[in-house]
Specification:
By secondary structure, the chain is α/β, with parallel strands linked by helices. The chain has one domain (about 5-115, about 130-245): Nucleoside phosphorylase domain (Rossmann fold), CATH 3.40.50. The protein has five helices and eleven strands, in the order E-E-E-E-H-E-E-E-H-E-E-H-E-H-E-H. The chain has helices at about 65-75, 135-150, 170-175, 190-195, 220-245; strands spanning about 5-10, 20-25, 35-40, 45-50, 80-90, 100, 105, 150-155, 155-160, 180-185, 200-210. Strands 1, 2, 3, 4, 5, 6, 7, 8, 9, 10 and 11 form an eleven-stranded mixed β-sheet that branches. The longest helix has 25 residues, at about 220-245. The protein starts with a strand and ends with a helix. The protein binds hypoxanthine (HPA). Hypoxanthine binds near residues 161 and 208.
């Protein structure tokens, strides 16, 4: 049976329903991960959980040690990662509360440690990243969203920005021109690092606000938190369905 790890994003710093058997403090050659890797039972099977921003939420997107996080999960025995990400909606279908299982991404981040193949030049490896997300994992997420009856899109391009500020309206127009449907700050380099370590990886994105310039209103943290609060129960139900069926 595939060993799954869940990386929880904003609003999911703890996985309710996870019966924790062990909490591992994993040392990695890249430093400390965002927190302990929790091993336990969720939806009737063994899974791992890691809070991307720490618990409680303390690390902004550009301070997350993505290499340590992905390495720690691999080290703990993970074979596949389900990544949970809160995002802004760019495409008109992507209103608050909508789910998206992206099929591709564009990386706009800068100056993040983004590869395990950085130092030892004899080992530089150019991974194929044409299709950054695992199709079988995407299909599992899509089947669970359909079964739960949530509004969702089974494709979409995730634009990953540097943060921590939100984008300007003009930046969102640019992302839209580039083909992005949703925008977030934490999808990269995580997805690429997972590929470098041969881990299957897919993203379940929850839209928590219209992207900059898309609603005419100021994007408020209160609105984002409300959308997270409203959506996180659905995220957990989808995860439970994916894992119990996998
Ligand atoms: N932009 C970038 N990241 C985000 C957003 C956004 O509008 N909403 C949630 N994460």
């Amino acid at each position: 049976m595939t060993v799954y790890a869940i990386i929880g994003g904003s609003g999911l710093t703890q996985l309710e329903g996870l019966t924790i058997r062990q909490s591992l403090s994993v040392n990695t050659p890249y430093g400390a991960p965002s927190g302990e890797v929790q091993l336990g039972e969720f939806a009737g099977r063994e899974v791992m959980f890691l809070a991307r921003h720490g618990h409680p939420h303390r690390l902004p997107p550009h301070k997350i040690n993505y290499r340590a996080n992905v390495w720690a999960l691999k080290q703990a025995g993970a074979e596949a990662i389900l990544s949970i990400n809160a995002v802004g909606g760019i495409h008109p279908d992507m209103g608050s509360g909508h789910f998206c299982v992206p099929h591709d991404l564009v990386d706009y981040t800068s100056s993040r440690e983004h590869t395990f193949f950085a130092d030892d030049l004899e080992q530089v490896t150019h991974i194929d990243f044409s299709h950054p997300y695992s199709e079988p994992l995407r299909e599992r997420l899509i089947a669970a969203l359909a079964a739960d009856g949530h509004p969702f899109s089974d494709f979409g391009v995730y634009g990953c920005t540097q943060g921590p500020r939100l984008e300007t309206a003009a930046e969102i127009v640019r992302l839209e021109r580039d083909g992005c449907d949703i925008v977030g700050m934490t999808g990269m380099p995580e997805a690429a690092l997972a590929r470098e370590l041969a881990l299957d990886y897919a993203c379940l994105a929850l839209v928590v606000n219209p992207a900059a310039g898309k609603s005419g209103a100021v994007i408020s943290m209160a609105d984002i938190e409300q959308a997270l609060h409203d959506g996180i129960g659905k995220v957990k139900a989808v995860l439970a369905r994916v894992l119990s069926a996998a």
